[in-house]
Amino acid sequence: MHLFLRNMSFFGFGQTAEIDIVLNDAETRKKVEHKTEDGKKDKYFLFYDGETVSGKVNVTLKTPGKRLEHYGIKIEFVGQIELYYDRGNHHEFVSLVKDLARPGELSQSQTFDFEFTHVEKPYESYTGQNVKLRYFLRATISRRLNDISKEMDIVVQTLCTYPEINSSIKMEVGIEDCLHIEFEYNKSKYHLRDVIVGKIYFLLVRIKIKHMEIDIIKRETTGTGPSVYHENDTIAKYEIMDGAPVRGESIPIRLFLAGYEMTPTMRDINKKFSVRYYLNLVLIDEEERRYFKQQEITLWRKGDIVRRSMSQQATIAAQRYEGSNPEPTSAQAKEETD
Amino acid sequence: MSEATVADTRRLNSKPQDLTDAYGPPSNFLEIDVYDPQTIGVGRNRFTTYEVRMRTNLPIFKLKESVVRRRYSDFEWLKNELERDSKIVVPPLPGKALKRQLPFRGDEGIFEESFIEERRAGLEQFINRIAGHPLAQNERCLHMFLQDESIDRNYIPGKVRQ
Questions:
Q1: A111 partner at 20 to 30 Å CA-CA among A5, A219, A248, B95?
Q2: Can you give the CATH number for the domain in which B25 is found?
Q3: Closest residue of B to A202, CA-based?
Q4: In sequence order, what are the beta bridge partners of A68?
């Protein structure tokens, strides 16, 4: 019922007021491109976990002099997961509300300040094939018949520091008596602008190989238990060898990840979905037969280097302990420092 | 600790290759020729055979060189055996050309030179594709087809181990 009433306000029926949201740091805050569900790219303000979201809600009366009766004005900060096949159920993992005005009357346009202090944003924004995770601000004027509301999407990125343990991947695989190879990738965890350095060493070659390539596959998994669904997408295909190798030959791999559109690895987000990446080594023989070996890699997002002065760092540290709820220090650790 | 702004993209260390491996004959040598079509018999009982010569250094084949004579129905037999026993997707054979076997044709039918050449090329492509397949190489029927004098249709199907 509530959803229907909200939609009416988009058509402008009885639209006596306009509501919009403006961030306090709109001038300085960075914007990033993010794909929308229909594949287009739009720019949104970028936030990190722990950052404060503050701004103003402007309520503009369309007909000056005509009062706006309302049952309350509020602003919400929402983080939710939407599964495309189950649109009715939004899974909210962050839901904060600030009341801006108690039920009453507005006789003129008014601006309300809001601040969501040190908001937890545990997951990265993601728009995929079957699932979407988004964060948004929603300002609402509650009314008797139809609410007036406005949403403003933001994008959240999760940053990591260099992993402490990052072992290489090295494995011997093959088909008995036909093809034995040893492949090696220099790391198991790569950041989004990293380089995959590796090699393929041929131990036995009794088939006629025509060429070899390495593919990056993104697998989006939605659903749980019996209704798990995997959506595979080949993000990249990169030929690393053209021609027939012989025993003892080593083929180098050098694959720059910055050129591909990828997200960090997302594992079991809120128990709703996962996004994982795999390297697929493919050998193709002269009769177009394909021999392949898939290996998962972990992708993570490295922050841009931020050099903060000592006084700036001290200010931030002090801010974190203000107020009744001291913030966990994990938020600090996530920003890349040198 | 300051982080490098340029990633280390130097090659990983690898063992130097043995020169006999680098310049020696490759371990995947396998060549099969289908040639020299001969039509034997007279009248209605004629049929064409082809010479199938295999040269290889793959250890799974007992003989490194073999020459046998096979006719189209032998290739059909091999295809059926592989379709039944192995998990591979068997490539197609050149057509059976039943129309060419009907009477009152203006030409030589299945003994027409151009048709035999077309069929020969198709059979050569077929057998090379099969013989290079790692899974087909384990089948007894393939070894019998390529290296035994004649095909024993009462053979016991099975796998060949190296």
A1: A5
A2: 3.30.1520.10
A3: B17
A4: A106
